[in-house]
């Protein structure tokens, strides 16, 4: 509990909260096709991308949702947002080991586990491993530490600022921004849930069983 309190304080610190505010003000100004709002002008395309990268995992996912909305941004912004890739440096050895122990209290299940990840993103990273009993080669996904809680804090911040902005919105603006936030919230909460990822994999494997598409076997 104490650790989560520290994470919440860190994620809500004034500098980061202001970065969230500038992100939302930029979206608001661009959507309303204005040049400024009070003291603030919109961040330029490259500034917006840098802001999103600094804010981390949740906002990278939100940017992917926004990059589909031509009604929010002109082509310069859309092009910049579409260049955002969800790639992150690999976890440190210490964080990787802790993530592994959380996921696999009995590490003897693997005969081999490659410490260098095959891919590393904002939510987690994927490693190659070999099962001890069957000798089968498998892919192992490790979530970044406290990622679920960090995402929940970001959702809280976004909703907090949107409530503050609410009196400024027309009904059309409010509904458009709220629809984007709902889509983002659904996507990000599914991506940090391994159980939901498993359910999605089983669902699509069943739906497309006769299509010839190959799915990972859970």
What is the structure about, briefly put?
This protein is 56% helix and 10% strand.
Can you put this structure into words, describing what you see?
The protein is globular. Strands 1, 2, 3 and 4 form a 4-stranded antiparallel β-sheet that branches. The chain is built from 9 helices and 4 strands. Helix 2 (14-31) runs antiparallel to helix 3. It has 218 residues and is an alpha+beta fold. A hairpin with a 3-residue loop joins strand 2 (119-120) and strand 3 (124-131). The two termini are 32 Å apart. The protein has 2 domains: 2-86 and 148-165 and 173-194, no CATH class; 93-144.
Descriptive tags:
218 residues; 9 helices; 4 strands
**Helix share of residues?**
55-70%
Element-by-element helix/strand order: HHHHHHEEEEHHH
Mean pLDDT: 84
Number of domains: 2
Strand pairing plus helix content: what structural class?
alpha+beta
Biggest sheet features = 4 strands, antiparallel
How does the overall form come out from the CA principal axes?
globular
Terminal Cα span? 32 Å
Rg (CA only): 20 Å
Number of E strands: 4
Percent strand: 5-15%
Outline the low-pLDDT stretches. none
Separate helix tally: 9
């Amino acid at each position: 509990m104490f650790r989560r309190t520290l994470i919440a304080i860190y994620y809500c610190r004034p500098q980061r909260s202001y970065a969230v505010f500038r992100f939302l003000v930029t979206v608001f100004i661009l959507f309303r096709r204005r040049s400024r709002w009070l003291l603030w002008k919109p961040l330029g395309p490259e500034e917006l991308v840098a802001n999103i990268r600094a804010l981390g995992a949740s906002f990278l996912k939100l940017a992917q949702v926004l990059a589909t909305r031509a009604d929010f941004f002109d082509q310069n912004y859309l092009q910049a947002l579409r260049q955002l890739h969800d790639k992150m440096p690999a976890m440190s050895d210490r964080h990787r080991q802790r993530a592994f122990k959380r996921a696999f209290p009995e590490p003897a299940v693997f005969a081999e586990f490659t410490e260098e990840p095959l891919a590393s993103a904002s939510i987690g990273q994927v490693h190659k491993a070999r099962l001890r009993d069957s000798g089968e080669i498998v892919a192992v996904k490790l979530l970044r530490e406290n990622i679920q809680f960090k995402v929940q804090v970001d959702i809280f911040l976004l909703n907090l600022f949107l409530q503050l902005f609410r009196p400024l919105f027309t009904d059309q603006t409010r509904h458009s921004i709220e629809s984007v936030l709902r889509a983002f919230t659904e996507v990000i909460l599914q991506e940090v849930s391994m159980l939901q990822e498993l359910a999605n994999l089983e669902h699509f494997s069943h739906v497309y069983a006769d299509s010839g598409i190959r799915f990972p076997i859970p």
